[in-house]
Every structure is written in C-alpha cells, then in structure tokens.
C-alpha cells in the first residue's frame, strides 16, 4: 500500500465516501492533516480520493480511517491496479449511487402529488382529487418521509459538519427545508395561531431536486473517470507461457520475468518483453496514440496491453505486474487525476468562507423582511431561497472534473501529465527548449564517413576508434561501434577507458593512447587538428557531427555521423511558433551542426544554444527563466533530467514505450514533436473549461443571492438552479472529451507552408 518511500515518508490513497461539496473535502483534509505523523493530505472531490503523505511508522491506516470517520465520512484504501480488492472500491461507489437512487426515487414519488396539488390550486381547479391533495394531513403524510428518509443524509451530514464547526451544502439544505417543513407543521397543528399557508411541497420538492442533482453529478463523475477504466481494460487476465516444454495458460499475476510468452494473431500482449522468435505487426495506439501498426521482429520490445495483428510470435517477459509500462501509465494518470491544480485552491478558499457568509446573509434577509413589515411567511421563504441558491457545490467541482477529463484525454493520446498542476502549467509556457539529439532528431546517428590521414587505412582507423568507443554508452559511440561491426572488424578491449562528457572518450587501445571527440578535446590534449579542419567544417555545415581521432598525441583522422530530423519536426516548430512560443534548441554538439539542423526545422539561428556541456544544460534553462519567461524543456528524460527539473515544465519525449515516465512532468509516449503541440493545446483547452466552469458555478450564486434576498426567487426554483449548476458544470467538463488535441492544430499549421510552396502564387 505504502508506495514511493522517500526517506521516512510514504504515500497512501484513500477513497472517501459521502462528500457532497468543497467544504466536505476541506473538512476531510483538515481531519487528516491534524493527525500526528501526517505530513500533507489532499482531497479531490472529483475522484472522491484523498492522497496522504505521512511519516512511516508514525501513523497507520486505521488511524486515518478513524479520523475520516469522526469527520463524518468513510475511508477505505485504494488498491493498486491488478491487486485484489481493486474492485471493492468501485463497488462502494456503485452502492453509494444506488443508495442515492433509492433516496431520490422515494422523494420523486411523494413530491409529484405535492407539486400537482400546488399546480391545481394555482390554476383554480376543484374536484375530489384537488380536494384530497390539498388536505393538510395528506400533505404532511407525503412530505414527512421525504424530509426524514430521503433527506436524512442532510441532517446527518450537517450534524458532523456543525460538530467540527463547519457548514456545508448539507447544512444549507437541512436548514432551508426544515424551515419550510416545520413552519407548515406548526400551521397545521395549531390553526389557532392563524399561520397562513402550507409549504410542504417546498421542502419535499427541494430535497428531491437536490438529490436529483447529486445523482446526475455522481453519474457524470463516473463518466469523467472513464479513461482509467479503459486503460485497466487493456490488461489481459491470462497469458500463454511455455513452462516445462509445453504451452500453458496461466493467470497474469503468475507470469514471471524471463517467462516465454506466446502471442497469437489478434491477441492482446499480456506483459512487457522482448521478441525472441516470430514476427508480426502490433497496434500500439492505445498506449502511444500512434495509429500505424508497428512491426516487431526478434530483438524488438513489445508492451503489455497492445494488440497483436496477424503474426504469431514468442517473447521473453522483461517487466511484469506493477512494473509494466501499462501499470506505470495507469499509476501516473490516477495520481494526476487525484491531484489538485493550483487554480483550485482559490475555489477551495472561496467555498470555505461561503457557507458561513451565506447563513449570515440569510439571517439578515429574514430580519430585514420581517422588520420592514413583511409577514413571517414571506420572510421565511426569502431566507430559505437564499440558503439554497447560495450553495457552492458547483464551485468545488469546476476544477477537478475538468482536470480529470483533461488528463484522461491526454492519456488516450499518449500524453501523460503527472498532475493537475502540470496540466495547468503547460498553458502558460512562453518558451520551449528542445534538446537536439533524440528530440528534434531521431537519435539514431549513422556513420557517414571515415577519413584517414597519412599512415592510416580507413579500416584500421575505424577499428581503433571503435575499440576506444566500445565502453561508451553515448549514441555517437554506438554508431561508430555498430558500423565497425558491420564491416566485420575485430575490435580489441580498451584499457583505461574514460568517458569525457560533452567532449569524447579517451582509452588505451593496443598499447596506444586514443582520443575520439571534439576539436576542443584534441587541442586540450595537445593534438593539433590542422589538416582535418577543412573537412570538419564542411561536414558540420551539412549538419553532420565530426569526431576527430588522435593516436598517441597525433591526429589520425575523423569519423562523421549524421542523424536525421524526425518527420513532422518542422511542422511542430511552426505550430509552436504560431501559438506564440519562442522555440530554442539546446545541444552539446557544435554550433555549426546545430545551426544546420535548426535551419531544417525552422528554429531561429539566434535561438540555438550549442556546445553546452551536459551539466550546463540546466543553467541554460535557468538563464531563460531568469529573463522572466515560463520555460518548458523537452528531452528524452534520461540524459537531460537536470534540465527537465530546472524548467517550469519538464517534458520527456520517448519513442515507443521505453520512456522515463517518472523523470518528467509530462511524458509523450510517441516520439513526435507534435505531441508537445497537442499537450499545450490540451492544457489551454482544459483551462478554458475550468474558467467556464468557475463562471457557471459562481454566476448562479451571485445573481441568485440578491434575487432570493429580494424574495423574487421561490425556494423551489433556487433548488432547481443549484442542482442545475452542479450538473451543468460536470457536463461541461465531460464535453471536453470531444476535443481532439491532435487534430485541432495540425491542420492550419500543415496547410500554411504547403500553400506557400505552390508555384505561381
Ligand atoms: N563517446 C563520444 N565519442 C565521440 N565524441 C563524443 C562522445 N561523447 C561526446 N562526444 C563529443 O562531444 C560533443 C557533445 O556531446 P554531448 O553528449 O554533450 O552532446 P550530443 O549528444 O552530441 O548532443 P545533445 O546535447 O543534443 O544530446 C558531441 O557532439 C561529440 O562531438
Ligand atoms: Cu449545493
Ligand atoms: Mg546527447
């Protein structure tokens, strides 16, 4: 349960049952934070979950559950994907919905005749039915079960609230409906008091409407979390593995690393692994958003949850259980959905002060009405209407529901936001720094040239250089070694190997000291590069990277590699610039090569930061931030982790699913730069939704309160408006699902240059 142990703290997620509005979530938060040993607690109203960080050993799960219970709610641990018990949480949620359905059903059945009586009376219709429904005792019989059975939850919740000196929506509903109910009861029991009119229908219809609102809200909330359910549905329940020489179908949780798994046409791949035999194409769209099937051959990685097309193949399991890419993705999305966006804090604060303020306003309303000569009934109804219209329940839902849909939608397109905070931050970026190798380019450099100086043959030089590079993990080294192996050269084992970050390598090969790297490296080591300079400059101007070779202090030649720009990179840069972002390139490579690549993708040469040593990349990002810009950094998340951290938003971009999901704020599962455009678009759209939601949530209250105070709003209309405001906010959030962050933008961006290229225009 306790996951991600950092020093002595751990985190746990609890599902909370029974919260109705923002002040409920605030109360649960407070109850948890007050516990000794709890560091932070954050409660999300859209997911009904609390995320608690606590000092390990200082507090246990039971204590947390008890604290939540004392505050008037129920807490149960949220289980990891694939763990036993993961279903009980959904069951609890569904039970709660069914309970609400029953409460609403009862309220509706009994409220209809009450409402009918009011309508008949207003229309002046007589007759037996009207007479019967108009009878006070009949009305009492109808209204009482609504008040105390369907509406019991409001009393119960109010009790807990008031006990912890709080007031929430339930308090408002309980107060408002009780006022109407008991007033009518008094009028019925003591006709001698001469109280005019009965308002049983007001209390009953109000309770029914609020319950309807809650029910619709719960259903819509369920729809906002669909993304997670879809991701979980990708996990097959069984796998076919080879054990003791024969094929067996076993439950997924028994698959072990190293197992040989058999995949037939049309089947879902059960866990992560590496293909060992057979070949096929695999549809990875569910995880990466990439719609084209990917070819798989021995040696290629396959990912659990993706779908095999025609071929049959076997693979060796490399990651199982909670380690698989799918499990990680689900974890990230779940955490993101349970997290809070900063924009929400405002709503939380507002709603904390709202309810007490509203109770105050309603009392003042009553007093002013009564004292200025209004009758008791009118004063009471105005007060009730104020209590009801002012409920801030929609306010608490405005942000989290939109964040939930936004993060879920992102996941469907292969864009993983680590938290609501990051989803929010992406929309305010002003500058984007793109790493060159592996981000703008494919990151698969290939050897293009071997140039040997006098005294060397090309193959000797390549053999020596590749031997020196053998122990290096740099992609440049990999390219050199791969090429030498293709040529069939026998490499020798280097001694005293040293990797010089940002410069090259140095090693003893066959008794000779070999340097491979930049001009600076050779010069620093006293090896002149004179006769190689011309060729180096020429290669660099063509966008290639030249690595100079010196043996025993003398220049021996060079090898050059070229890396190709990713398809769509230029379109993405154009789109980003159109969106108003400054686009920068950051690289350790030399300035000339960098500028040649920048030109290919349309990055301004003044925005190229080249020859930056790996440890200085973060400083460069910081320098941009110091200019007052909100900076996003895009890299592979492995080599440039410090720069990702230094940026306002760190975006890791991966090819396939071997991405460092943990390393960044945002992970793009698909290697394309267009993903950045989509991520920012999605963020902007989500923020737009949140603003709309906040507007809708507040407009009801702010317009409604004065109307209600003036007596222009009946409590029933106020109740309907309140229910409608919650439902409209949640529905507005679910509408975000229709948004396609990939389509909306790529069209105009792709259209622009193509039109311009047309001859004769
Ligand atoms: N193993 C190596 N062999 C040869 N040259 C190297 C090696 N490592 C680094 N270099 C030289 O140092 C330069 C800078 O390396 P660095 O790793 O900082 O950047 P990069 O990988 O080329 O580019 P980017 O910063 O875009 O990833 C390289 O362009 C290359 O010339
Ligand atoms: Cu409400
Ligand atoms: Mg690099």
UniProtKB/TrEMBL annotation:
It is a multi-pass membrane protein. It comes from the Bacteria. It is an enzyme of class 7 (translocase). It holds the Pfam family Hydrolase. Keywords: ATP-binding, Cell membrane, Copper, Copper transport, Ion transport, Magnesium, Membrane, Metal-binding, Nucleotide-binding, Phosphoprotein, Translocase, Transmembrane, Transmembrane helix, Transport. The chain crosses the membrane at residues 103-124, 136-155, 167-186, 198-216, 353-372, 378-398, 693-710. InterPro entries: ATPase_P-typ_cyto_dom_N, ATPase_P-typ_P_site, ATPase_P-typ_TM_dom_sf, ATPase_P-typ_transduc_dom_A_sf, ATPase_P-type_domA, HAD-like_sf, HAD_sf, Heavy-metal-associated_CS. Its EC number is 7.2.2.8. One of its GO terms (molecular function) is copper ion binding. Residues 10-76 form the HMA domain. The keyword Magnesium applies. It catalyses: Cu(+)(in) + ATP + H2O = Cu(+)(out) + ADP + phosphate + H(+). One of its GO terms (cellular component) is plasma membrane. Its main location: membrane. One of its GO terms (biological process) is copper ion homeostasis. CDD domains: HMA (cd00371), P-type_ATPase_Cu-like (cd02094). It is found in: Cell membrane. Belongs to the cation transport ATPase (P-type) (TC 3.A.3) family. Type IB subfamily. NCBIfam families: ATPase-IB1_Cu (TIGR01511), ATPase-IB_hvy (TIGR01525), ATPase_P-type (TIGR01494). This is Copper-exporting P-type ATPase. It comes from Limnochorda pilosa.
